[in-house]
Amino acid sequence: MANASTGLFVVRITALRDSESQERVALYLSGRLRGKTVEEIRGYLDRLPIVVTRRAAPDLAERIQRELSNLGAVVELEPIGAETAPPSVEVPPPPAAGAWIPVDIFAAAPIQQGFPWDLRGPLGIFRAWWETLKFSLRWPDDFFARMSISGGYQSPLLYAVICNLLVLLISLIWVIPILFFFPALVFFITAKLNVTGFTILLMALGLLLAVVTLPLLIAIMTFIGAAIMHLFVVLLGGRGGYQATFRVACFANSGQVLQVVPYLGPLAAIAFWFALVFFGYRHAHRLEPAPAIVAMVLPLVMVIGAVMAAVIAVIIGVVGSLDLTKLIPE
């Protein structure tokens, strides 16, 4: 660790514990090194040792060392006097110094907790979404340990909307064959149930309206779902506020993307949802394992029961309003 010296410190990564540590450190550094992609950072990490920063105050050096060590890096701090410190971060290193990163990362950008989704500016929204998806599914514990429990609703909600829209759009591929039978279906409904063409048109317009307003519906359901989740979190001793639960609910949508995989996809999505919410509750609300499990299972049971009751009520209402005798051949 850094001592109480008034000088500056060189922060150097000398080793990585394993390949997963390399991925974590690459994601971490990519958010603080402007103009460098994750792939480029991985390239630097293949040529250790590398210097992260050459001019760090003691408290900053300790913080960098602590955060990188938690991600699996072996970090070395080298004290230097202020009078002997490099005058500029652009000064080329001596050949024997290893593969130096040619920018003082932590001087160029402030340290911030978070993950790639917070870096939509430098990474781009789709690249940030992809890196966030991989990070959350591969290391959910570390992911939620770095998630901020504040900062607004718009950013996590955007992530949830993208995940759900992507699943719905890809799922349409599996129903394309049904479109070939759509004319026959319309004819059957019109002829057998005495439904007019105008009614069919209204149904089509209603479907189009539902597609257009889908992002709004996803947002509304996310807020409602997070409210239900938060109720049980509070009852079981959660320490975070509603926004913390909302953020957990939004980023837990990473698992929904697995639904596009045929057959086993939905089961995998459910399993990952449980895992993501579990670690989210553990970090965002400081819940012990048992209360965290109970807090995420109870609202799910309640929602499933309510949905089943609503579906049964709708089916009974629809069946009761149709003249099914017209479907029976005379």
Compact description:
With 330 residues, this protein is mainly alpha-helical.
The radius of gyration computed from the alpha-carbon positions, rounded to a whole number of angstroms, is 27 Å
- Give start-end ranges of low-pLDDT stretches: 1-6, 82-114
* Total number of domains: 2
- Count of beta strands: 3
β-strand percent reads 5-15%
SSE run: EHHEHEHHHHHHHHHHHH
Main beta-sheet annotation: 3 strands, antiparallel
State the end-to-end CA separation: 89 Å
Give the helix level as a range of percent: 55-70%
- Give the helix/strand class: mainly alpha
Query: So how many helices?
Result: 15
Question: What is the mean pLDDT?
Answer: 75
Q: Identify the strand order in the major beta sheet.
A: 2-1-3
Shape: elongated
Your description of this structure?
It is built from 15 helices and three strands. With 330 residues, it is mainly alpha-helical. It has a three-stranded antiparallel β-sheet with strand order 2-1-3. α1 (19-30) crosses α2 and α13 packs antiparallel against α14 (265-284). The protein is elongated, with a radius of gyration of 27 Å. The chain starts with 7 loop residues before the first strand and ends in a 9-residue tail after the last helix. The relative contact order is 0.09. The model is unreliable at 1-6 and 82-114 (pLDDT under 50).
